[in-house]
Amino acid sequence: MAKQFSEHRKYCRIAIGEPEVVDLMKEVPCSFSAASLELLNKYGSRMKRLNGIEQHYSNVTSDPELSTVEVMKLATARYTSFLTQSSGDRFMLTHPFNGNHTALCREVTDDLELALFLLASAEKVANEQFDRAWELLRMCNHLASPTGDPVQRVVYYFAEALQERIKRKTGIVSSDGWECNKRWQSRLVEEIMCLLPSSFAHRQELPFYSATQFSGIQAILESMASAKRIHLVDLGIRSRSHWMILMQALAVRHECPLESLNVTAIGTASRQLVEETGRRLSSFADTLSIPFSFKVVMVSDMQDLSDHLFEVEADEVVGVYCSLSLMNFIARPSHLEALMGVIKTICPILMVVTEVEANTNSPAFVDRFV
C-alpha cells in the first residue's frame, strides 16, 4: 500500500495545487474559502487539544495500534493544522508527517494519509471545487476498500457518498438515479423499523434515548394537563414506546379524564410497518381502556405535507413530536421552512424535538462532515 500512496500522491497535488507552483506565489496574500474559514472557526479552539493528541502519538517509542476513532482524530488535527499554514506550506498535505512518524507503523501511517485525503476531498466539495474533489475521491476509492481495515472501509463509503453529492450538485444523477436513491432510503427506514427488539435491548444498556423520551412525554403531560381531547402528530415515527409511556400516564390521570387520544403518524416510507405500529398501539390502548385512534399519513416528501391531511378537530389540543428527524433537513432549508409552515397552521401548543447535539446539525457541510 505504501507504493500505492507514492504513486497516487500526484493526484493529491493536482487537487490541492502543485507545491512548486504555490512556492512562486508566496508573496501573494493567502485567502481561505468560506468553507475553510468555517472549519477553522469550528475547530480553532480545539487546536491545542488536538495538537496534544498529535504530539502524544509522535512521541510514542513503540508501534502504537491506533483505533479508527484515534486515526480520524489525528488526521483532523493534522488537516486543521494544514489549513492554518500559509499557502507555501501546502506540500504538508502530501507529506503530512514530515519525518515525525517513525513511531507509527506503516499501516497506521497509510491510514492517516488516507483519512487526510478524504478530509481534503470533503473541503473541496464544500468549496464546490468538484474537479479537484473528484481526483482526490478517485484516489480514495483506489486505495480504500469495502473489505479492508476499518479506516479503509470508512473512507471507501464516505468517498462514495461524496461522489454521489458531486453528481447531485452537478446534475449528473438521472431521474432513474434519484428513484433508485429514494428506494434505497425507503429500504433503510424499513430496516431500522424492523429492529425494534434490538432497539429495546440497546436502550436498556444505554438509556440515553429513554431519558429523552421521558423528558418529552413529561413536557406533553404538563402542557396538556387539562386537555380532554388530545391530538398528537408524530413526524417520522420509528417506534411506539414513547406513546405507550404516554398512555400509561394518561390512564392514571383521574383529575381530568381523557375523552380521546388521536395520533397522526407522518411517514415517507414503509406504510405497512407504520400501520403495524398503529395496530399494536391500539391493542395496548384497549388494555388500558383509553379511547384511541391512529391515522397514517404517507407523503413522498415532507415538502408535500399539507395541513388538511391532519384532520384536526376544533376542540382538540394539538402537540407535535419529532424525534431524530429534523437533522435530515439541515442541507435542505427550504424543505424545513415548508414543514414548519405547515406545523404552524395546526396551532400546536408545544412541539417536542429530540436531536443529537453534534456537528451533524451544522448548516455548513464541512462541519457536518468532520
Automatic annotation (TrEMBL):
Key words, A-Z: Transcription, Transcription regulation
Record protein name field: Uncharacterized protein
Lineage top rank: taxon: Eukaryota
Residue ranges, annotated region (Leucine repeat II (LRII)): 276-308
Lineage: Eukaryota, Viridiplantae, Streptophyta, Embryophyta, Tracheophyta
Record family assignment: Belongs to the GRAS family.
